[in-house]
Amino acid sequence: MKALLQRVSAAKVEVDGEIVGEIEQGLLVLLGLDKGDDEELGQRMLDKLLSYRVFADEAGRMNRSVADINGGVLLVSQFTLSADTRKGARPSFSSAMPPADAEALYDRTLELLREKHSTVAAGRFGADMQVSLTNDGPVTFMLEL
Hints:
Helix content: 10-25%
Strand content: 35-45%
CATH class: Alpha Beta
Protein name: D-aminoacyl-tRNA deacylase
Shape: globular
CATH topology: D-tyrosyl-trna(Tyr) Deacylase, Chain: A
InterPro entries: Daa-tRNA_deacyls_DTD, DTD-like_sf
CATH superfamily: D-tyrosyl-tRNA(Tyr) deacylase
Pfam family, one: Tyr_Deacylase
Subcellular location: Cytoplasm
CATH architecture: 3-Layer(bba) Sandwich
Number of domains: 1
Number of helices: 2
Largest sheet: 6 strands, mixed
EC number: 3.1.1.96, 3.1.1.-
Radius of gyration: 15 Å
Order of helices and strands: EEEHEEEHEE
């Protein structure tokens, strides 16, 4: 499981011109699901990303989490994070979770996130999404479990 975290001032996801998810200050989380990932791993990933200290404290140090600042979390599925890019000029997706399984795990992970955090928005699994963001910093981290 991979989660690309981007600290944002604002972010939104559109599908067919309709905004389906939007947050102000917080984290845009692009989530890649691999074969073998499960709900337990999803729980661990959520705990890590909600407590990951990427926001400034009074001294300007990255010492606060999205939970500490009560920021938003915009969760977007992104199977391309599972690509194997080590060989050739074309990515391989052989390690990506099959779509039906990935959708079920994404939906469950989103449900768990909503139970753990108050401000949550999401993209639409499998849709052609247009993601817009104002990257704050820029600050971007790849979490892998």
